[in-house]
Amino acid sequence: SRQGILIKGGNYLEALSHLDTVVFDKTGTLTKGVFRVQEIHAAGMGQEELLRFAAYAEGYSNHPIAVSLREAYGKKIDHAFVSDVRETAGQGVTALVDGHTVSVGNRRLMGKLDCPEIAGTTAHVSVDGAYAGYITIADEVKPDATGALSELKRAGVEKTVMLTGDEEAAAREAAGRIGIDEFYAGLLPGGKVEKVEGLLSAQKAGAKLAFVGDGINDAPVLAGADVGAAMGSGADAAIEAADVVFMRPSLDAIPKSIKIARITGVISAENVV
Ligand code: ADP
Ligand code: MG
């Protein structure tokens, strides 16, 4: 507890001392999850109008991208103009704004609409079925990510993996910067569960796999891993579903928890003898 690490049972402490693979969710776990709007490229309307449509459609969402769009818009959202909101996990949101059908999200959400491929997190916008432009959003990698990953290697973890619903280009860029062994992009929440199941079945006997996430769209994955760990800054559902909770956003807590687990194992073995 002094380290801000909550381990919900002796079995997880045991599993932590045999970790071989650590799988991370990207947004909010490896990155700060604090997004800021960078550029607005409107097609067929003004920049301000595009941003207004996007902010209104995202009026009810608590996704970090939605929050950044509302912040960039800066004015109060009049919810009387927003209805029929449908949020699709890992894709984005569609809503009726001022009588117009507005979709805000990634290329997958745009379906057959022709939209440019942009490196980095991008919110594409369509209005009444026509492409209306895109807004680029930057998220920062946590400053301690690279250090925590090399600590994990020193603690005996063989493989680090990043999963994300983000697009290939954005994922590749982040994975390279952090120094992660493998990454899988374009995953919907169900795809993350499948990936983790695949990694679990490829594990050596006795080796354990941990998944670390913030719980936004990934609570089912937390439940499926040998050790599901939640960064405490994340969603309540994650803290509920997790076996281990890191109360602070720092990634150093992961290698630290492995070391604590190992020392605990040694002490209890000595006591038995
Ligand atoms: P990650 O897998 O990196 O944690 P999510 O699963 O939360 O990210 O979302 C994956 C992608 O889906 C985002 O990068 C974004 O392109 C899109 N997306 C999800 N929710 C929204 C939203 N409310 N508004 C815009 N885009 C969204
Ligand atoms: Mg996420």
Structure in words:
By secondary structure, the chain is of the alpha/beta class. It is 38% helix and 27% strand. The protein has eleven helices and 13 strands. The protein has helices at residues 10-16, 26-30, 47-57, 64-73, 107-110, 145-154, 168-178, 189-201, 219-224, 236-241, 253-272; strands spanning 5-7, 19-25, 36-42, 82-88, 92-97, 100-105, 122-127, 130-138, 159-163, 182-184, 208-213, 227-231, 244-246. The strands form two sheets. A seven-stranded mixed sheet has the order 1-13-12-11-2-9-10, sandwiched between helices. A hairpin with a 2-residue loop joins β5 (92-97) and β6 (100-105). α1 crosses α11 (253-272), α3 (47-57) packs across α4 and α6 (145-154) runs parallel beside α11. The mean pLDDT is 92. It binds adenosine-5'-diphosphate and magnesium ion. Magnesium ion binds next to α2.
